């Protein structure tokens, strides 16, 4: 597991990079969902902010696992 990833000579923690990637993926998925599908899935959730946070946590774990396996 890589604890740090060097980006342009700056060491960035893998978890911070995973959080940034997950946040971008959440924004893109939410915008695509509203634009192309036309149904706001958050409307059917019990608590929309909690649903968004759960999606963010799941995506963070996925990106952290993927970034940790990269041979950098």
TrEMBL record:
Q: Which residues cross the membrane?
A: 6-32, 44-67
Keywords attached to this entry: Cell membrane, Membrane, Transmembrane, Transmembrane helix
Keyword Membrane listed? The answer is yes
For whether the record's keyword set contains Membrane, the answer is yes
Highest taxon of the source?
A: Bacteria
* Pfam families (UniProt xref): DUF1656
Q: Tell me which InterPro entries the record gives.
A: DUF1656 (IPR012451)
| Protein name per the record | DUF1656 domain-containing protein
